[in-house]
Amino acid sequence: MGARRRVVSSETSDTQNLKTEEKSTKSANSREEEEFKLAPPKLSQIFAILAIFAIPYSYLFFVHYKIEEELRRSILINAVLSFAGFFVTLFMIPVASRYVLRRNLFGYDINKKGTAQGSIKVPESLGIVVGIIFLVLAILFQYFNFTADSNWLVEYNAALASICFMILLGFVDDVLDIPWRVKLLLPSFAALPLLMAYAGHTTIVIPKPLIPYVGLEVLDLGWIYKLYMGMLAVFCTNSINIHAGINGLEVGQTIVIACAILIHNVMQIGASTDPEYKQAHAFSIYLVQPLLATSLALLSYNWYPSSVFVGDTYTYFAGMTMAVVGILGHFSETLLIFFAPQVLNFLLSLPQLSGYVHCPRHRLPRFNPQTGLLTGTNDGTLVNLSLRVLGRMSEKSLCIFLLAFQVIKSLLIKLHLQ
C-alpha cells in the first residue's frame, strides 16, 4: 500500500507540475495577445483604388453596353456578395492574426531590418482567411445563379475544387517550407479537377497584334490544349509567388490583373451576340469579383508598412483563381498578356530558378536602415532590375512604381487588342 501511495503521490505531483506549466503557458500567451495589436486597416487608400476602378467598370456595365437583364442581375448579386465578403475579411484578419501568432506563424520584415519595425513579429499566412471567405462566397452564389441541371455547374465546382486544393497546398507550403523544385509541381496537382472536368473547346483566339505572324485568327490545339491549361496554371500560380518581396506587391498585382480581367469581360459581353460566349465571360466575373473584394480587404492590412504577411497561401490561391477564370472564360491567351510583367520577371528569374546561377533563399534588395532606401542586387527579379535602372528608392515608392507599370501595361495591351 505504501508503494502505491508513493506512485499516486508522484502522479499527483507530475499532474500539478503539468497544470502549472499549462497555466504559465496560457498566461504567457494571454500576455502576448494583450500586447499584440494589429494596426488599423488603411481604408482610405483602398477606397481610392476602388473608386478608380469602379468608375470605368460601372460606366461600361450600366451605360455603354446593353447587357441582358438576367445576366446583369446575376453579376450584381455576385457583386453584392463580394462587397459583403470585403467587410467579413476586414473583420476576420485581426482575429486570424492572433491565432497564427499563437502557433508561431510569423515573420520579420527583412526590408526593415535594423529599424524598430524590423523586430516586430508580423503574422504570416493570412491568405488563408481570404481563400476561405472566397470559397464561401463562391459556394453561396451557386444558390442564386445555377440550377441543378446547369451545364456550367460541373465546371464551376471543378474550378472551386482546384482553387481549394491550391489553398491547401499553399498553406502546407507556409507551414512546412517546401523546396522550390516541389513548389513548381504543386499547381499541376491542383489543376487536375479542372482538367478532368473541362469539356469546352480546344481552340485559342490569337490576339490581334500576333495574327500577322501566326497567319490565323483561331488556332485549334486539340489534346495539346489541356497540356497548355496545366502549364498556364503552373505559370500563373508561381509567377505571382516569385514577383514578390516588398509590402503590398503580391496583393497589389493581383488586384490590378483582376480589375483588367473584369473590364475585359464586360467589354466582351457587351460586344458579343453569342449567348455561350457571354456566359463564359460572366462565369469569369463570378469568380473574379469576390477575388477582388477579398484581396482589397487584405491589401488594407498588407500595404506599406505591412501589418500582416500574405504567405504562399495567398499567392498560390490568387494565381490559380486567375488561371481558372482565364481557362473557363476562354481568354487564356489574353490573360497571359495581362501577366506581361510577371512573364518578364519569370524570364529574369529563369537562370536562378533553373540552378544555372546561384539562387539565394531571399532574392530581396538591400535595405539601408540609415537612409530607409532599397538598393538593387544582381538577383534576377523585376524588383531588383527596377532599382538598378531607376536607382535607390523607398519600399513604398518601389511598390507604387511596379503596380503603376502593371496598370500601364494592362491599359496599353487592352487598347492594342481592340
Tell me what you see in this structure.
The protein is mainly alpha-helical and 418 residues long. The protein has one domain (40-339). Helix content is 70%, strand content 4%. It is built from 17 helices and six strands. It has helices spanning 2-35, 43-64, 69-102, 127-145, 153-176, 180-183, 186-190, 192-197, 211-214, 224-242, 249-271, 275-302, 311-328, 332-338, 340-353, 382-390, 395-417, and strands at residues 106-107, 122-123, 203-205, 218-220, 366-368, 373-375. The strands form three sheets. Strands 1-2 form a two-stranded antiparallel sheet. Strands 3-4 form a two-stranded antiparallel ribbon. Helix 10 (224-242) packs antiparallel against helix 13 (311-328). It is globular, with a radius of gyration of 24 Å. The termini are far apart. Mean pLDDT is 85; it is low at 1-12.
Distance between the termini: 93 Å
**Main beta sheet: strand number and arrangement?**
2 strands, antiparallel
The 3D shape can be described as globular
Structural class: mainly alpha
The low-confidence parts are: 1-12
| Percent of residues in beta strands | under 5%
The secondary-structure element order is HHHEEHHHHHEHEHHHHHHEEHH
Helix content: over 70%
Radius of gyration, rounded? 24 Å
Count of spatially separate domains: 1
Q: How do the strands line up in the largest sheet?
A: 1-2
| Total beta strand runs | 6
Q: Based on the structure, what is the oligomeric state of the protein chains?
A: single chain
Mean pLDDT equals 85
Q: What's the helix count?
A: 17
